[in-house]
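Worked example 3 (structure in, sequence out).
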């Protein structure tokens, strides 16, 4: 069966992009990354795409027509599923509607708890004893679309933001390829 064509949108480090690259490297994985787009020219994740010989482009969110250019690039590459991976821009309701059911995101909390930015700082401040990560469909409401997969991660005594982020990230790296597999297999 043809592999599902993924476009991955990043803004930074790209460790979730790397997890998807590594997932796609398995011979039986039902998806492949055909394009990486970064809204930042200095995103470290771009080097990961290059190392994996995946075409990438930089489209700055400061350019007029940013979203139209992103949409055009995704369509030109024949992308069937868009994966946001540390992509730190909010997409318009119009863009989201065009990619309805074909646009997913990973967020480092147990949504609907702690949507938005500075997630781990807020989790620690709340005194919560567990957090987690969530892969969900993107809708016009921020971090509120239908959940595909989520997994709990404990908050441990003595955690700071970095320690907690690292523990959650390790789970993100397993969860994101798993969610892509489910969608690619139409499960
Ligand atoms: C990840 O923890 C991801 O869940 C989070 O940013 C990090 C990106 O890391 N995304 C959000 O907070 C989205 N609102 P990465 O660039 O190494 O994948």
């Amino acid at each position: 069966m043809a592999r599902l064509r993924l476009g991955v949108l990043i803004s930074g480090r790209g460790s979730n992009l790397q997890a998807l690259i590594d997932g796609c490297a398995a011979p039986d994985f039902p998806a492949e990354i055909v394009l990486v787009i970064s809204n930042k020219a200095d995103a470290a994740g771009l080097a990961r795409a290059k190392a994996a010989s995946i075409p990438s482009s930089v489209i700055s969110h400061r350019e007029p027509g940013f979203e139209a250019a992103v949409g055009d690039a995704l369509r030109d590459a024949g992308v069937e599923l868009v994966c946001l991976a540390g992509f730190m821009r909010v997409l318009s309701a119009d863009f989201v509607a065009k990619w309805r059911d074909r646009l997913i995101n990973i967020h480092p909390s147990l949504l609907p708890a702690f949507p938005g930015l500075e997630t781990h700082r807020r989790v620690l401040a709340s005194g919560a004893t567990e957090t987690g990560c969530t892969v969900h469909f993107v809708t016009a409401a921020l971090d509120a679309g239908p959940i595909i997969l989520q997994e709990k991660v404990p908050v441990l005594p003595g955690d700071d933001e970095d320690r907690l982020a690292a523990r959650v990230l390790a789970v993100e790296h397993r969860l994101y390829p798993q969610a892509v597999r489910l969608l690619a297999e139409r499960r």
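Notes: The mean pLDDT is 98. The first strand starts at residue 4 and ends at 10.
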